[in-house]
Design a protein that fits this description.
The chain has eleven helices and twelve strands. By secondary structure, it is α/β, with parallel strands linked by helices.
């Protein structure tokens, strides 16, 4: 639905739109090449190197033009993890013929959340996707300012339903549980680790705690005792916690020095540093959010699995619902799972593979529960 007073507003904001379309390169809504997509998340049909699309926000107020903008948390659109998976969902909506114009803004400073969201709102975009827990407050506020825009907040759980905002959430504890059980079952040293972003973010905390719970569950089945190292990067701000691959690599190396032979990275680029270090050391690497075997080639040869949130199809489906008017506000829940074993499949015993399939089904039907609460106590 377009704003009723848009014709008047267009006369007033003509010059403003031009300015909004040409901000500094680090914040400009930009069409990017489609990143590699995991088959389990419905790969996009976009070309490898699509032409760069200049900002065309002036067309977005037109009723026949459906525009989708995405605002990242501090991080990059090509982080090979969380932000990238959400952007691929936006690209998928364009490939499916739902969206006509898709653009993004990479946030470099948390204080710019509202400004970046407002860039799309002022330009008449129909849907604005905001990525990450930290943007929750700014997203709800923007929904009041732009009541004719549909907002999709990825990883933004709502204690009370916010009109205009669909919060796309996932059972991260289940995904973490699965790879924790796998790591414990595959570890020869009976020591495994997880290098995570800040535990202030509930989804990150659920990943880490699910990982520990899954290892304990596997120990109960296998008659083993596994020591689990889980470290959260919580002593820095949001501008650093997910973008610190050096710290991730150092932390993973410390865990391996203490005997860990499987490392789970759950913290964007920080986690990528950890699992890359693990793979280079010959340990098992476990990715997060998407099937990182397909997005992190430097770690792929030792990628045991990934704790997956099916972000790409979840975002694409909500964008389609926004266009056809069937979108519902409040909390919407997507699915989680684990990625294939790929190059190390020959190292995974048949009984472990069977255990994973059974455990995944049990988590889905509720017969096994992680016992991880929604938020950190």
């Amino acid at each position: 639905m377009k704003k009723l007073n848009m014709m008047i507003a267009l006369l007033v904001i003509a010059s403003v739109v031009l300015a909004a379309c040409t901000p500094p390169a680090t914040e400009a809504p930009t069409q990017a090449p489609a990143p590699t997509e995991a088959p389990t998340e419905a790969p996009t049909a976009a070309p490898t190197e699509p032409p760069v699309v200049e900002p065309t926000a002036a067309d977005c107020p037109k009723a026949e033009v459906f525009c989708v903008g995405l605002v990242t948390d501090v991080g990059k659109i090509n982080d090979k993890s969380f932000n990238q998976s959400a952007w691929e969902g936006v690209l998928q909506s364009q490939t499916d013929g739902v969206a006509d114009i898709v653009q993004y803004i990479e946030t470099t400073d948390a204080k710019d959340y509202a400004k970046n969201i407002g860039t799309f709102g002022d330009a008449g975009f129909d849907v604005i996707v905001t990525v990450g827990f930290a943007l929750g407050e700014a997203t709800v506020a923007a929904a009041t300012t732009y009541p004719d825009v549909n907002f999709i907040g990825v990883d933004q759980f709502q204690a009370a339903e916010a009109d205009g905002v669909a919060g796309l959430n996932f059972p991260e504890d289940q995904a973490g549980f699965l790879v924790g059980a796998l790591a414990a079952s595959m570890s020869k040293s009976h020591k495994i680790g997880a290098v995570c972003g800040t535990d202030v973010v509930p989804p990150v905390w659920r990943f880490g705690e699910g990982y520990k719970a899954g290892a304990a569950y596997a120990d109960g089945m296998n008659g083993t005792t596994t020591e689990v190292f889980v470290v959260y990067h919580s002593d820095v701000g949001f501008d650093k916690t997910f973008t610190d691959p050096e710290w991730g690599a150092q932390t993973a190396t410390s865990m391996m020095d203490n005997g860990a032979d499987a490392i789970f990275g759950c913290g964007g680029i920080t986690g990528n540093g950890a699992i890359t270090a693990a793979a280079q050391a010959g340990s098992y690497a476990i990715g997060v959010d998407t099937d990182q075997y397909l997005t992190l080639p430097e770690a792929a040869p030792r990628m045991l699995s990934s704790a997956m949130k099916l972000i790409t199809p979840g975002v694409a489906e909500l964008i389609a619902a926004a266009k056809d008017g069937s979108i519902t506000y409040g909390n919407v829940f997507g699915h989680a799972g684990y990625a294939p074993f790929h190059d190390v499949a020959g190292e995974v015993p048949a009984e472990v593979s069977a255990m994973m399939e059974t455990l995944n089904a049990a988590l889905l039907d509720g017969s096994v529960k992680t016992e991880v609460p929604p938020v950190k106590p």
